[in-house]
Amino acid sequence: MATTPPPFPRPVTQELCAWIAGLTLADIPTTQRTRIKYLLLDGLACGLVGAHLAWSEAAVQGVMAMESPGTCGLIGHGDDRRLGPLAASLLNSAFIQGFELDDYHKGAPIHSGSIVLPTLLAAVEHTAAREGRVTTGADFLVAALVGYETGPRVGLGVHGIEVLSRGWHSGAIFGPAAAAAAASKLLQLPASQAEDALGMACTQAGGLMAAQYESTVKRMQHGFAARNGLFGALMARSGYAGIKQVLERPYGGFLSVFSQGNGRDPPCDPSRVVDGLGVVWALDDIVVKPHASMAATHSTIDALAALQKRHPRQLAPRALHRIRSITVEMSEPAFKKGGWRPVRPLTVTGAQMTAAYAAAMQLLEGEVQVAQFAPAQLDRDDVWALMDKIHCQHNKDLATYQQIVTVDVDVDVDVETTHDAERQDTKGRVERFVERVVAPRGNGVALSNDEVLHKWRQLTARVIDPARAAAIEEMVLHLETVPDVRALADLLHGRTESVFGAVPTKL
């Protein structure tokens, strides 16, 4: 016999779902309405670049071997490759997350584009094929914003980065709720069914950060979240009941379970999920990446770039043999995620997740972009010799994205103009260069919409033809006027080139 659950101080799940069901395009301020379109464009660029990476190809081969043909296409793989909505959302997410180029929320780490975009594209195509349903660009835009808002808010309810510090893949934890929210809005579910969708999505949350070392499954874990959130929404639409009040229940609820052991008092804060809904936008704290590596490496890259600019002679590539040591002081979450010492041989995934490799590439090549992770780069002797001199350490006084980079360099003596006695006097002396970064580029000050557009154009320049890129760009930036989003999906399905076949220039 069912029993009545105990009362809860604030029904945050219901509040969130009421907002999801009631939001209209007119409720979204112009600034956020414009920004979400540029974030969508950035996510699509990542998907087009990621579609034919080696691990993406392996994922497609594996999934297609076990799944029947369906109604939904795959980014960059031609119109003949179609799968069911769950499998398609999984793979398209793996493409977007395929190269550490996609967005992240700086307070609650989640790659929203890799969850929301594949979820919505699959929902659009599935319902169009099965029911003849037409989704307008305006409806797609509102649903996307709902997903981009929900994921970080749910993450903030469990103190965001704390989840990452304890070894969970945070975006895969917050992501199912984001996918369920976005799909519920697109499918126009009432608030009660949106709550069912969130209940089914949140019970499937999971993901371990040990995936960052040797595996390629790290690329797919946001895809699990997209798939599971979409599953929740489609099941709720059919009348299947999910966990009610899933976020705030004290026993077995999402916030209570995923905040266990974090040492905070209180361990979770349900109010952060809903406070300021429609007024304060989590979207505003979503960061677009300027570098092709994990976020915790960006401060390292920026610090070294600043030092290279200030000391061009001492830190020129030809002078790097004079470096004695590089110390990178990091906050706890950054150190746990990116401060580990790489071991040869190194995978692309591992290279993108360690500050040591990012530092070596910035010093040797002056940038950390797609080209720096080509397979031949990973086994260069000069890269490994430089990484041997790089030491990361935890500094408990640093905030999340703050870093202090110290470079000790042997004093460079000009043999032609310096007397022997003077050269002898400088023997063993070092110069010390120190740079403190409070927040990396794109984090403290967000990349402008023009900078995001530049990134889109640079990333897509060598993987799709200019006319197709221009058509996608035009459609996304004027999404409110698009009568049927399937036109965008069709443009995305066309074949793309391998990014390592023709690597783009600087972003």
Automatic annotation (TrEMBL):
MmgE/PrpD N-terminal domain boundaries: 14-262
Residue intervals of the MmgE/PrpD C-terminal domain: 291-480
Q: Which domain of life is it from?
A: Eukaryota
Question: Pfam families given for it?
Answer: MmgE_PrpD_C (PF19305), MmgE_PrpD_N (PF03972)
Looking up Gene3D superfamilies in the UniProt record yields: 2-methylcitrate dehydratase PrpD (1.10.4100.10)
Q: Which InterPro entries match?
A: MmgE/PrpD_sf (IPR036148), MmgE/PrpD_sf_1 (IPR042183), MmgE_PrpD (IPR005656), MmgE_PrpD_C (IPR045337), MmgE_PrpD_N (IPR045336)
Q: Which family does it belong to?
A: Belongs to the PrpD family.
- Supply the name of the protein: MmgE/PrpD family protein
